[in-house]
Amino acid sequence: MEKTEQVLQGKDLDIIEGEYVRISQSKVRNVEGSHVEMQQVAALSIDGEKVEAAQSAALLLHGESVSLHQSVAGASVSNSTTLNYSCTSLSLSKGETSLNSSAAGIIASGTIRAENSASLLLLANRVEGDVATLLDWKSALALGAVLGGIFGVFSLLKRK
């Protein structure tokens, strides 16, 4: 198979497919490729084996390896995730998640390595480093039970 490379800059793009895709200063709806590099890009969906984003924003990132540097993501799903000075609302990783001065809403991973980072809910087999977490699994379960009870009481009162 012949290696194809696409370099795009300063465009409003719809769907991009390629083996190696490098995009800068653009808006993209969907990107699919083996290796995707983005710099100053706004994207809806990114799917690739290796995804690297610098100063970018994406709604959904999916890949074997996802790396964000000074970027924002709605959701990130991968085997290995690296966040450097970035923010994501949901990060799901099979293997390892590395955070460096980053923030995340919900992180679920096998291993988390963090330095000066924060999260709302953290689920992991092993956590190494400094991460401030608002809820662990026990407090999230208790919060869910309380909110479920309140919702149940209000639904009973609503019927009468």
Nutshell version of this structure?
The protein has one helix spanning 137-159; strands at residues 5-9, 12-54, 57-69, 72-84, 87-100, 103-135. It has 160 residues and is mainly beta. The chain has one domain (5-135).
Describe this structure in words.
- The chain has 160 residues and is mostly beta strands.
- The protein has one domain (5-135).
- The chain contains one helix and six strands.
- The chain has one helix spanning 137-159; strands spanning 5-9, 12-54, 57-69, 72-84, 87-100, 103-135.
- A six-stranded parallel beta sheet has the order 1-2-3-4-5-6.
Q: Which characteristics define this entry?
A:
six-stranded parallel sheet; 160 residues; mainly beta; 6 strands; 14% helix; globular
Report the portion of residues in β strands. Answer: over 45%
**Sequence of secondary-structure elements:** EEEEEEH
Mean pLDDT reading: 89
| Count of all domains | 1
* Spatial order of strands in the largest sheet: 1-2-3-4-5-6
Count of beta strands: 6
Distance separating the two termini: 68 Å
Shape: globular
Main sheet attributes: strand count, strand direction, barrel closure: 6 strands, parallel
Helix fraction by DSSP (H/I, runs of at least 4): 10-25%
Number of helices: 1
What Rg do the Cα atoms give? 19 Å
- Which spans have pLDDT < 50 for at least 5 consecutive residues? none
- What is the SS-derived class? mainly beta
